[in-house]
Amino acid sequence: MSLTDPGSTGSGGGDANVPFNQTNTAHIDGTSNGVTKVHTLTFTWNGSVRSNSCEAAVRQGESSGTTSGCTACGYPGSPSRTQSGDGHFVTVTLHYCGDGVVDSSLGETCDQGAANGSSTSCCDANCHLVTPGTVCRASAGACDPQEVCTGSSGACPNDVVDPIGTVCRGPAGPCDQAETCDGSKVCPNDVFLGSQGGSFVCRPAAGPCDHTEICSGTSAQCPPDTFLFGNQCRASAGVCDPAEFCNGSSALCP
C-alpha cells in the first residue's frame, strides 16, 4: 500500500494485518491533518486462485522449516502466476486531504497540503474552501489592508500595500498635517506644523487687541487665544478724546 498523505495508517484495531474472508470488508484508518479518515475496502476473491505449499507458508507466516524448500523468493508459484495478477494481493493507493492534490471525487474543493486549516490558508482541514471574506492575513499597519479569502481559491491573496499618497492619518487639528502612505506597511510618524521650521498661523488676529497665534510645532492644536493688554489700540483725536488701550479680555478696542 502506498500512502501519500503525511499521516499514519492502521487497521483500526492496532494490527496492520487484518484477517477477513470473502464476505468481509476491511478498513484503513489514516490521519490527515490531525483528522482521522476511514477508508473501507471491499475485496472480491478470485475462487480459481490456488497456492502451493511454499506460497501458503509465506502468506500464513509459517515458521522456517515447517515446509520444505520454501522461501519468499519462491513466488510466483504455480501455475506461473504473478503477484499483480494474484487475487490474494491488493495494492491500495489512497489520496488523502493534505497531500496537495485536489480530488473532487472525494468532495475536496481545495488542498493546500500542510497549510490546510491554518490561519493563513483559505482551505480548511477537511479540504473545503472557507467562507468568502474570512481574514487570511491580518493588517500589519495603517498602509497594509488585510487580505480575505475569495471563496474560489485555497490560497490567500497576495500581500499588498496601499498606493503611495493614500491618506493613512488625517489631521487632528489646525496645526497637524495629514500623513500619507509611502509604499511601506506602516504610516509615517505624525508631524506637526512648525516642528521642522517655518511659521504657520493657525488663528489670525480678530481685532486690534488680539494676538495672531502660531503653531508651536509640538501639538496638533492651535495655542489658546490671547489678547493684548495695555497696548494702545486707538490714539487720541483731541484734547477731549483720551487714547484707548487694550484691556486684555477682548480682541476689540474699547
Any overview of this molecule?
The chain is mainly beta and 254 residues long. It has a domain at 19-56 and 87-160. 3% of the residues lie in helices and 19% in strands. It is built from 1 helix and 13 strands. The chain has a 3-stranded antiparallel β-sheet with strand order 2-3-4, with no helix packed on it. A two-stranded parallel sheet has the order 1-5. The radius of gyration is 42 Å and the shape is rod-shaped. The model is unreliable at 1-24 and 43-78 (pLDDT under 50).
- The portion of residues forming beta strands comes to 15-25%
Distance between the termini: 103 Å
Structural class: mainly beta
Number of separate strands: 13
Give helix and strand order, one letter per element, not per position. Answer: EEEEHEEEEEEEEE
**Global outline:** rod-shaped
Radius of gyration: 42 Å
Give the number of helices: 1
Biggest sheet record: 3 strands, antiparallel
Low-confidence parts: 1-24, 43-78
Strand order of the largest sheet: 2-3-4
Mean pLDDT: 76
| Amount of helix | under 10%
Care to give the gist of this entry?
The chain is mainly beta and 254 residues long. The chain is 3% helix and 19% strand.
Set down the secondary structure blueprint.
Elements: E1 2-3, E2 9-10, E3 25-32, E4 35-42, H1 53-60, E5 93-94, E6 135-137, E7 147-148, E8 167-169, E9 179-180, E10 201-203, E11 213-214, E12 229-234, E13 244-247
Parallel strand pairs: 1-5
Antiparallel strand pairs: 2-3, 3-4, 6-7, 8-9, 10-11, 12-13
Keywords:
254 residues; mainly beta; three-stranded antiparallel beta sheet; 1 helix; disordered N terminus
